[in-house]
Write a structure and sequence with these properties.
By secondary structure, the protein is an all-alpha fold. It has one domain (about 5-215). Helices cover about 50% and strands about 0% of the residues. It contains 9 helices and 2 strands. It has a two-stranded antiparallel sheet. The protein is globular, with a radius of gyration of 19 Å.
């Protein structure tokens, strides 16, 4: 399910290495057969691919309707280009970190304890084995979890060691200028990415909306199904 649509959309980006990514990471890696969670939304074979495709569809629609496509800036404060292929790559691949994460053949799946640590940054690392990501694609994937990722990898007593610090690291050197400090922080925090590149906020909300929609659909199906069986 969705294998043809997803592979065609990714290939259409013309990105060097994309064929290898599709074959090794998605097809051989098991992306199209993986669930999206252990027992929540998309907890069935093919759930991950369905979620990723629907996030991409919704994001393309919202970005287009809001007029965010700009070759010179991502509709924010920094000159990072936002093109359709950026939306496609980031949306379709944002959750490749879930490949191999869940064990079993049906709900409830079990967490694979051998799965590498990380979520968004694991997705980025896996993708970059095959293709080069733009700076904006990295930001969109890194911060697609939004506020839910803020404490994901924090170490006790060191909030800046986490994957999603509220603000970016910056130099406390008195000789560092304001401009140099801002440059050092750019893209290194959730708030910073959201402010400079609103598309990072949009992908987060779209991801949440699709998840809620999927949960509602699955709940409705669970209610209707017993009636069908008794008919």
């Amino acid at each position: 399910m969705y294998e043809k649509e997803i592979t065609e959309m990714l290939k259409a980006t013309g990105r060097d290495g994309m064929d290898k990514l599709i074959e090794e990471l998605l097809v051989k890696g098991g992306f199209f057969d993986a669930p999206a969670s252990t027992k929540y939304h998309g907890c069935y074979a093919g759930g991950l691919a369905k979620h990723s495709f629907r996030v991409c569809e919704m994001l393309l629609e919202h970005v287009g309707s809001m007029g965010l496509y700009r070759p010179d800036t991502s509709a924010g404060k920094k000159p990072l280009p936002l093109m359709e292929e950026t939306v496609v790559v980031a949306a379709l691949l944002h959750d490749v970190c879930k490949i191999g994460a869940y064990l079993g053949t049906e709900k409830p799946y079990r967490w694979n304890k051998k799965q590498p640590k990380g979520h968004a940054l694991l997705s980025v690392a896996r993708i970059e084995k095959y293709i080069e990501l733009t700076d904006l694609e990295k930001l969109m994937i890194t911060y697609h979890m939004g506020v839910y990722g803020l404490n994901e990898f924090y170490e006790e007593g060191d909030w800046q060691s986490g994957e999603y610090p509220l603000r970016g690291d910056h130099s406390h050197d008195e000789e560092t200028t304001k401009e140099e400090s801002q440059a050092a922080r750019y893209g290194k925090s959730l708030a910073n990415a959201w402010y400079h590149n609103p598309i990072c906020k949009v992908i987060y909300f779209v991801d949440e909306i699709e998840t809620l929609q999927a949960k509602r659909e699955e709940q409705d199906e669970a209610i209707v199904e017993p009636g069908r069986q008794s008919a």
